[in-house]
Design goal:
The protein is an alpha+beta fold. Helix content is 30%, strand content 24%.
């Protein structure tokens, strides 16, 4: 699917993103002078980390005050203590590593501009015509060689004169010749240094604690010419002149002295073949299998498929959301997930891997109350389940911090995740010190990895121990009174009951997450044939968990306590966790509860000014699970119309401030965040195939706009990969299913089929099925 723009970016948020997992690059796409913003997964400005005091003795006081109906006083107990000891433990700020500044000499009047991204390889191309000749700059970030590779092509022999410079991005110390390019000059606590040598130069950043990071650049002239260095325009430059082409290679490092890193990286660069196509082929061999594991065709008009992104985005803004735009959104978000995650990297954060600020919104951290989960929702469905492994690696490195949180805050065993994280897992100050569902929610990802891949080693080494730590916390924290389990304090992110603070008791989400975690733990132990001697306690707590309740309007209640009344105008839908991302609430097993969940969803789908970009994606997934394709599509369209920029990045809010989501504020720019786009992909998959262990529903929420189409490589929670083709509005279906193991599957088709339910006996391997209504 072509991804192109017919104008360059003026802000980093509008540039073209690519990367290899650890490294991210944003290409602005200008002709004469261009910028490539570089990000490294480990570049974080550390913040002070205080000593978490012992709050556990006050837990009883919180519960006493809540029992007396003194909700505000109860909510203030922990924050008041933390204020009294001046406790601060802030999240580190994710920041840019630097940027490549590119300057061409001898550029005349240009035309036919186009910048593009090859979604199969991750290669970015900036192309233009000048005096009847076509010129190009190409760039990719190698997954095989950990190098940013750039070439310039199309010049006559001896005519290319191009200079490059590594420098800090958007800081006050940088002289920009009066261009005023950076609208947000910043002064981070980092010292900068430039070094140069024969055909190379380096950019070095130094934190206040002495740790160093940076990049090394080497330019290689091709087709004749020579390298040169200069220090004009206020900085060190490395370039080529009198050449026909050029190969620019950049390698980056983090937390290593520059004196050691620079010679090491120069040696690595020298060992690489001085041929762009060879380097691209080596990269593509590793990168393309991830991209090609899944594909989507919604029968879009070919003329629409050929349009630049900004044309499709403008048409969508005006109300015409084409299937081509939906296809491109799915392809581009998969590209973002692949290029921001690798086996040896930290996972994608709030902005994936791409950020141009030193104080980004919410520190560009890992938010555990939906954002990071939504980012990885599609991974198990679109052939990228293995990308959950670096996500697990990131969280497992902070287990000691989570244990400290559980012990110091609640006096409990097990683990307690903070709501927001960066370079540590210690609890921050604030109301969310009371939110306990984070560990259980993250456990769902490790469980889905097992369901999709059948990887017993991951189940044994990651899923089982995490679930055991989560269950240990619940056994100590949850109170069982008169045979009923209670969660106090409790939060339903990020909503508050009518007239009450956010911190209350018995949020429906807490019960749903606990039930799911304990159920999956017992199943994991059964599968592995292991025991920890606490199975009876897990079952007793499961039996004590309360049932769902309904509010006067007939919807699932957000809080189970009788004094806590629902507030519907809110972007979070945490009380519907059991419908999605869980699957406890479903049409087949619990019809009345399922109907109440749909009613709750109807109550929540209110005014646009209570919604955000990611909540449109959440809504779409919930409507897909409800079997209502048109309602799901409505939310996907709102996300594309108001919260998606032409470079296919999703935003937290309506970036044009045209009333298509909650308003960010006068003069304020809403933040780019990656999770809404990933939630979009998840919703599309849920609309095409709904799955849980032993169950598959084909085309459960097909909108009229997708009358025909094809999806290849959709991976499901019952260990079956589905290739699906449909036409005539879903009345003709062909499905190829590849099962990992012999199993029985309950298959469900759309309601218009004469036999919508069927039990299948699947043998390991491939089975081809066809259905006509």
């Amino acid at each position: 699917m072509p991804y192109s723009l017919n104008q360059p970016a003026t802000r980093w948020e509008d540039a073209i993103p690519t990367g290899n997992g650890p490294l991210g690059a944003l290409v602005f796409g200008h002709v004469v002078q261009d910028w490539v913003l570089l990000n490294h997964h480990r570049c974080w400005i550390e913040q002070p980390r205080g000593e978490l005091p012992d709050l556990a003795p006050q837990l009883g006081e919180i519960r006493r005050l809540q029992a007396e109906g003194r909700w505000a006083e109860a909510a203030a107990v922990f924050p008041t203590i933390l204020d009294g000891v001046d406790y601060r433990c802030e999240t580190a700020d994710y920041h840019p590593l630097g940027e490549i500044w590119i300057h061409h000499h001898g550029i005349a009047v240009t035309r036919d501009y186009r910048s593009s991204l090859d979604l199969e390889t991750g290669e970015v191309v900036v192309a233009w015509t000048m005096e009847g000749r076509r010129y190009e700059r190409r760039l990719f970030v190698s997954r095989a060689d950990d190098v940013v590779a750039l070439t310039a092509e199309g010049w006559e022999p001896g005519t290319l004169h191009m200079a490059c410079r590594l420098r800090p991005h958007g800081v006050e110390q940088v002289t920009d010749m009066g261009s005023g390019r950076s609208p947000r000059p910043q002064n981070p606590p980092i010292e900068w240094e430039a070094r140069e040598g024969d055909g190379w130069h380096a950019h070095i950043g130094r934190y206040e604690d002495g740790r160093e990071f940076g990049a090394v650049l080497r330019s290689v002239p091709l087709g004749g010419g020579e390298s040169y260095g200069d220090d004009y325009w206020g900085g060190v430059w490395t370039g080529v002149k009198n050449a026909q082409s050029v190969l620019v290679l950049v390698k980056c490092w983090y937390d290593e002295p520059a004196d050691a890193a620079i010679p090491r990286l120069l040696e690595e660069i020298e060992s690489l073949p001085a041929d762009y196509k060879t380097l691209l082929a080596r990269h593509t061999e590793v990168h393309k299998p991830l991209i090609s594991a899944f594909s989507l065709d919604l029968g879009a008009d070919e003329a629409d498929r050929g349009k630049p992104n900004n044309v499709l985005a403008q048409e969508a803004f005006e109300g015409n959301v084409s299937n081509a735009f939906v296809e491109r959104m799915v392809d581009s978000q998969r590209h973002l997930l692949v290029t921001s995650t690798r086996e040896d990297s930290w996972p994608a954060n709030l902005q994936g891997r791409w950020n141009g600020d030193y104080k980004p919104a919410w520190a560009s951290d890992y938010h555990n109350d939906i954002n990071v989960q939504m980012t990885y929702w599609p991974a198990p469905q679109v052939g990228l389940a293995r990308l959950l492994e670096p996500l697990a690696d990131y969280y497992f490195q902070f287990l000691d911090d989570y244990r400290l949180n559980a012990r110091q805050i609640f006096g409990c065993r097990g683990i307690f995740l903070p709501t927001a994280m960066g370079t540590h897992g210690q609890m921050r100050h604030g109301d969310f010190v009371h939110w306990t569902a984070g560990a259980g929610w993250m456990a769902q990802h490790w469980w889905e990895h097992w369901l999709v891949t059948g990887d017993r080693e991951f189940l044994r080494s990651r899923t089982l121990p995490w679930l055991q730590e989560t269950a240990a916390f619940y056994l100590d924290f949850v109170e069982v009174r008169d045979g009923v389990a209670h969660f106090a304090p409790s939060i339903s992110p990020e909503n508050s009951p009518a007239g009450r603070p956010m911190t209350v008791a018995d949020a429906t989400m807490d019960v749903a997450v606990c039930r799911e975690a304990l159920t999956n733990l017992l199943e994991a132990m059964r599968v592995l044939g292991e025991t920890d001697g606490q199975e009876d306690q897990y079952r007793q707590l499961l039996a004590a968990l309360p049932d769902y309740q309904t509010n006067p309007e007939g919807g699932v209640r957000e809080w189970l306590h009788p004094d806590l009344l629902d507030v519907q105008a809110h972007r979070h839908m945490s009380h519907l966790y059991g419908l999605f991302p869980g699957w406890e609430i479903n049409e087949e097993d619990s019809w009345e509860l399922y109907a109440s969940a749909i009613r709750a969803l109807e109550l929540r789908q209110g005014e646009l000014d209570s919604m955000a970009g990611w909540s449109f994606a959440f809504m779409a997934n919930l409507w897909a699970r409800s079997g209502q394709g048109e309602r799901a599509m409505e939310n996907l369209e709102l996300l594309l119309r108001g919260c998606t920029t032409p470079n296919m990045l999703s935003w937290g809010n309506d970036w044009r401030a045209q009333g298509l989501s909650c308003y960010w504020g006068i003069g304020a720019l809403p933040p780019f965040q990656i999770e809404a786009g990933m939630g979009f992909v998840s919703a599309v998959c849920e609309m095409l195939v709904r799955s849980r262990p032993g169950f598959l529903n084909l085309l459960p929420a097909l909108p009229c706009a997708w009358a025909q189409g094809r999806v290849m490589g959709l991976t499901t929670r019952c260990g079956v990969t589905v290739d699906l083709k449909w036409s005539e509005g879903g009345r003709v279906i062909s499905a190829t299913m590849h099962s990992q193991r012999a199993q029985k599957i309950q298959l469900r088709l759309p309601h218009w089929f004469q036999k919508p339910h069927e039990e299948l006996e699947l043998a390991p391997g491939t089975q081809v099925l066809g259905f006509t209504s």
